[in-house]
User: Fold these one by one.
Assistant:
Number 1:
Amino acid sequence: MRTSLCDTLGIEYPIVGFTPSEHVAAAISRAGGLGVLGCVRFNDAAELAKVLDWMDENTDGKPYGVDVVMPAKIPTEGAALDLDKMIPPGHKDFVERTLQRLGVPPLAGEGRAGVLGWLHSVARSHVDVALEHPVKLIANALGSPPVDVIERAHDHGVLVAALAGKAEHARSHVANGVDIVVAQGYEAGGHTGEIATMVLVPEIVDAVDVPVLAAGGIGTGRQVAAALALGADGVWMGSYWLTTAEYTESLGESAMQEALLGASSSDTVRTRIYTGKPARLLKTKWTDAWAEEDAPDPLPMPLQNLLVAEAHNRIQHANDPAVVSMPVGQIVGRMSQVRPVAEVMETLLRETEETLARLKNL
């Protein structure tokens, strides 16, 4: 299975895998796809640089990319404490009451600061670090990055991708200089729009003259083949790597993976409680609490993330699968076992080839 995207990115197969784990990203690249490391968890640029050094040494010379979160609207940014003052006390009280009611204990030590990777300035520092490494692609999870960022990437020979939930967004991205559009359907995990993948992909393919990756609800070779049939040049997969062996090895056994392995495709919810923008999450007691009548409205990005950052840390340490807070798409219903990345990739390729052969014989 090969498309023009393979030559564009220097990969064997048109499968791009987004993941917050460098171990998973490196394994995807080694298996012939393009591993894309999510950078939002890095508050410290030096820490990201160290991880990218590791990526350079563990991808067998094969290409990889990074994903930043650069909001289109630049907020007024000062110290984290200044932003913290913008969070209403009632929201903080609600979070604390909810955690107590759900049996989530306080942390033994100090809580972490909010994930500052949601801030525009920190995302720019991620770009600075990435351009010091042999990355092949910089993707922006919130659409088109500023034109000057795109131009800097191009000056370094790095391609730029942007996620789009509407055809008009895709046209705007390309007009700004974006090289690859990720058409992310409603089914996808994390930040996602309101149009389903089956409808969205051909609309975006017809709207732009750059390679298009299909995203949202993809976890089998049949779905990869369907994406190609819709006109996509490849697929962008995120959720499906969360139950790989490499993800388990990097984080250890966790309640999050236990919850994912036991979930069905109907066990997700699209909500603004994670970052302030609509994102699809695993449906748990935590998401249910925010849907109750006494729950406050989520704050805009980046304030919502700063509000719930310590809560997410406490939830993670509580290790209760009924409460976890995790972005994941509707494909979670097919994520029923832990397998190595190489095995997942081999299965995707075999199923895709079998599907294409079956269709050819119709």
Number 2:
Amino acid sequence: MKIAQISPLYESVPPKLYGGTERVVSYLTEELVRQGHDVTLFASGDSKTNAKLVSLTEDALRLKDVQDPLAHHIAQMQEVIEHAHEFDVMHFHTDYLHFPFSSLLNKPHLTTLHGRLDIPDLVYVYHKFKKQPLVSISDSQRKGMPVDVNWIGTVYHGLPLDLYRKGEGDGDYVAFIGRISPEKRPDRAIQIAKEAGIKIKIAAKIDTADEDYYQRMIKQLMEQPHVEFIGEIGEDRKGEFLGKAKALLFPIDWPEPFGMVMIEAMACGTPVIAYNHGSVPEVIDKGESGFIVDNVAESVRALENIDLIDRNKVRETFEKRFSTGVMARNYMELYQSLIPSTKKLVFISKELKNQVRSLS
């Protein structure tokens, strides 16, 4: 199948450091290529992929002195329009930016929504484009959508099976990873670790928008003896960081659409202690891959019982539910549902021929 993957330009694919959407786009793109599909990736020029790369910007916008990122994305959308005839299906990861033209193209397409949807201003755009085929990254994410729209499926994120290895949790600390922001609640994580009498290591970025929050609410908490602030880390360090942790603390205070760090921890065999918000009950199997809690006291009790969680089973749960293979298979089902039945028979015929060749 000829598939277009259209990524935002803010980060490269995959991102060099933080960048959830672009990481998912990368994992999905590479898995589809591995499965033999003809994939074209529209992304920043510094992206690394085995697919065909189409880009109008040399570097990710985060790395450039860009005053108007929308200008770059509009140029990207025009490039997508000019190539649209080449594809069987087009998969957008660019929120609603493409809606005015993708709704007019006579081409199967779908959009994965990666962010929060409980924003009043979204009423206008999603009401106007209510027929756009949309994919959620959790069922919980849909609750924030202010209007009735055309949901065609939910597909959970996935990670390559060989990206992380199971760790032993022998680092005598708990981990917090992500962003220093009010909705991620690093203050809760620090308090939980303190009351449990265990060290906490914090690997997180501080966005410009969150600098004031960090200075007012978090900086003084970081000075406590049980806290070690590592800063933002990349993939090369994340596996060891999570694998040595006794648990990942995920004490969020917002309707998390998915929470990639939860499955990253699971891939390392590290159980997750997460507050019951957003996607958490869909991702965490209570008592098997972690504990779902509602307050600090419950979090401390969960830490006291963390050794009851079998790290081998945590890893097994990840492999069964959150691999790139599972993610790609679920998206392929959606792609197939969108294309005309005549083309679908052609794809099935090609797949059968490939299977016969592999057996001979």
Number 3:
Amino acid sequence: MNDSDGSSHRTIDAASGRRRSMVWLLVGIVLVAANLRAALTGVGSLLPRIEVSTGLSSTWTGLLSTLPLLTFAATSPLVGRTAHRYGAPRALVVSLAVLAAGLVMRSLPGVFFLFAGTVVIAAAIAYGNVLMPSVIKRTVPENRIGQATGLYVTAMSLLAALSSGVSVPLAEHLPGGWRTALGIWAVLAVLALAIWLPRYRRTGPMAAPPVARARIPWRSPLAWQVSVFMGLQSLGFYTMIAWLPSILHDHRVGEAAAGWQLFLFQMVGMVSSSALPILARRVKDQRIQAAAGSVIVALGYVLLAVAPQLAVVSSVLIGLGGGACLVLALSFQGQRAADPEQAAALASMAQSVGYLVAAAGPLLLGTLRDLTGSWTLPLLLLVALTLTQAAVGARAGRDLHLNSPSPAPVPIGD
């Protein structure tokens, strides 16, 4: 009787321990996700203030917005190898510590620290970007990948939107101005570090996965479709993050109001990215969703170009379609893979190629703005790229794995 009771208590304690561990794991994932954009999105709201303070031109501030994407592209292929060798917990712990240090560096006086800190921050964020799809692929059932992705996209988008909205008020009220407003996000990185550090200590510094690392699928057409879709939707997002406040400012909208407009764009995107996995949880073929979301974004760009006085409607359309495309782009990296190792390899490729594509956006639009003196041509270019995104998404959204053959066409007579 006593042995039975003891066994029962041990079983209950073990189950309770697993639940607690899972809760803390989810908390850790959400906190990592919260750090993946907040450190960068506040820059867009502060660009007019940064330009005045530093004397940088639109081209140079466009480069400042492009640097994170170039760094993502350069760093992403290294993440899988590092995580395989040292273990994902250690990779996350080190990247979060580097992120906190980079945020402090970026807030120091001097243009050098502004640019160097941005590179350090982006390199740290790249690790979280690549590791997330693999973690979700390993820990959740296949039919829940979209919902789990929606959870961390919601956390990522919420903090990104808050960063855009509060950056100007923080710069106005905190000592140190815009530099302090950018550096304050180090607190969020430290919180995430506090959650992941115990996991690093339990697994040990040299813990590594017991399975072979999958090769990056450079020769797969489906992997390229996923990567280009990732890149084009990221190009649109980061271009809006960088330049939407400046576009509105050029049409006599105040800095704080423009920052809250950017907040609206991201909040609508967050709602869209949260709702899509719920509304389409049983839909395995996402071609229509990817194409429709892209077309909605293109309509928002058209409206912003021809009727900037309706910028609120434009922000809603761009956020609505962009939020859907974001969660699809991230879901594809897990759903198009056959196993967690292949998901990590696909994520490395998608985020390396994708962010290399996206890097052209802020810099190109800033340069076109300097050359033409108007935002019309840059916005029309975004329309063309987003329609291309719709076509690519219609291919990336097919219900296939990387190692699966394409579905054979059905004869007309059948």
Number 4:
Amino acid sequence: MRPIILGICSAFFFAFTFVLNQAMELSGGSWIWSASLRYIFMVPFLLCIVLSRKNLLPLLRVMRERPGTWLLWSFVGFGLFYAPLCFASAYSPGWLIAGTWQITIISGALLAPLFFENIETKDGLERKRGKISVKGLFMSMIILLGIILMQLEHTKHISMANLWLGVIPIIIAGFAYPLGNRKMMEVSEGRLDAYQRVLGMTLASLPFWFLLSIYGFMTVGAPTKMQSFQSLLVALFSGVIATVLFFKATDMARGNMQKLASVEATQSMEVLFALAGELLFLALAIPSLLSWFGIFIVIIGMILHSYVSHKNEGPARKRTVNA
């Protein structure tokens, strides 16, 4: 149950991304700076944490073993995740982005066959390729049904062009984030804690963010002080606190694809927290009865998803970490 609680806490802090990115877009800030500044600002925070725990040198040793792999999957997990997320904010409101982002619930389940898991049986450990949990996938569809009901009334007021420009980048991000996260868990082989892994992926993704920053200077100019401050808040709340909490939760479920998918399903709470944030700070209209019914469906779907995942984890098929 603890990984689920950590996942919900991470969803709360992740919601700051959608609210603050929408606030930056409404004030005229560019998505380029919203994306790149977050990860640039994350570095000093994470360095202080890892240095205080005396874990920087072990991290650098692990990164030196496979630098190309770190660069690739950090770009996928962070670059192809957050740049499209910020790009979408230029075309869609935060609530729609948060709702579409729940594609991670299904993508997390669909990615299971790409990874192996060690299953402890009476004959010892057996290494098998992960399987898609049909029941878990069905529960994920219930969650997405709730999300659709929540957003149904709002989609009537958005042009088709803006809808697709907001949806397609989020679909890309929704698959890139769990893929990059899981690949880096596989590469680190349990040798790094959540703080080290987030710092390592942030450092490895910096070349992309620097290139994007150069492009930003050439096209839209320097960021404003307000956007820099808001990006700093996103870096702290979402980039550091939320990411570390989520990585801790996924580390605890590492090697168990069904439980891992359950942890990733907790991110559906982001839309609830983002909705609350926009109601409080961006003067969003109060949702209709249909939207509140969708919220109820999301909560029920999360409970059922967690229950099914734990029920399917029998004592005779205890899963251990990837190897």
